[in-house]
Write a sequence for this structure.
């Protein structure tokens, strides 16, 4: 005799049971309070990852809730840097003091010579202001998500001078010689090159851990952060390429910055410039499968510390970043 078919009531009860299970799971994820679980999704995408699409699938599991704050704080350090640069370049000032407090050693911003860029292209000016407001929103989002666990802003160097982080980065890329100064606040083109130093790094870091996120709530938040960074990077690359039609040195300079980043983050090729073939641009840097590249936290710190060696500070973070994830790779 065949089994009796489930009644409509049985089906409804089963659906309610499943929905309640999902509700309990969401409550567990938000148990840390203050939206921390969703915030952790944003930070989790900055965790350790592989440098190729094939290897990324074989990574270890996502960080446990106990380690989410560590990864999220790593992201917050990077957002402090970007927000300070864009805010100075757009509005001639840094972030409010209320946005900088937290655990660890709070550092100041070395911004000698920094100031609002005298933009001549209103499009570049408007883009800069939009990104500046996005970046300060990221800082405030992460700080709110972390609550009392948030790290303070570490010491940051976005100054102008022959020994500044920007000049050392430009020198490593071959844009300037010994003793010379690169000023990212001097004009539109210099600003674009300064912004280009940062933008692609964030995309590769966020993309790396995306395959490790299983929870849909986490994945949606992570996808939103990744999309924002990718929009910024694509915008900067597009404008550099377009302006490079009249000023070819912009394209070659961007390509050299890309090569410099690659020389810092290890032997693998995780970067591409904006110059494509004679008949194509290279706005989207991708592997043979059309996928974005990935970087580990150590590789990201190699770039912002401006060293290919193991280090706990240097470059744009003279004393290192705050939090437990603070050592570059080798």
């Amino acid at each position: 005799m065949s089994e009796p078919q489930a009644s409509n009531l049985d089906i409804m009860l089963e659906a309610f049971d499943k929905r309640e299970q999902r509700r309990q799971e969401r409550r567990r994820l938000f148990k840390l309070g203050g939206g921390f679980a969703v915030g952790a999704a944003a930070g989790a995408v900055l965790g350790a990852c592989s440098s190729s699409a094939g290897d990324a699938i074989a990574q270890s599991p996502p960080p446990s809730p106990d380690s989410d704050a560590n990864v999220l704080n790593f992201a917050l350090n990077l957002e402090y840097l970007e927000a300070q640069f864009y805010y100075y370049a757009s509005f001639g000032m840094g972030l409010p003091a209320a946005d900088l407090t937290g655990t660890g050693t709070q550092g100041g911003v070395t911004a000698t010579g920094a100031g609002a860029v005298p933009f001549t292209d209103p499009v570049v000016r408007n883009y800069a202001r939009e990104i500046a407001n996005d970046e300060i929103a990221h800082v405030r989002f992460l700080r709110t998500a972390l609550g009392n666990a948030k790290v303070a802003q570490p010491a940051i160097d976005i100054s102008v001078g022959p020994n500044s982080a920007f000049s050392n980065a430009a020198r490593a890329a071959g844009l300037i010689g010994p003793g010379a100064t690169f000023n990212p606040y001097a004009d539109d083109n210099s600003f674009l090159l300064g912004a280009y130093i940062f933008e692609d790094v964030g995309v590769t870091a966020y993309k790396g851990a995306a395959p490790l996120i299983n929870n849909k709530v986490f994945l949606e938040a992570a996808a939103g952060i990744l999309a924002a960074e990718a929009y910024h990077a694509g915008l900067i690359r597009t404008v550099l390429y377009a302006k490079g039609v009249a000023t070819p040195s912009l394209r070659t300079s961007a390509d050299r910055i890309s090569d410099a980043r690659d020389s810092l983050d290890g032997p693998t090729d995780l970067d591409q410039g904006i110059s494509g073939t004679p008949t194509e641009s290279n706005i989207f840097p991708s592997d043979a499968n059309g996928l974005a590249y990935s970087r580990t936290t150590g590789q990201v710190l190699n770039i912002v510390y401006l060293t290919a060696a193991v280090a706990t500070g240097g470059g744009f973070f003279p004393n290192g970043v705050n939090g437990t994830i603070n050592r570059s790779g080798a």
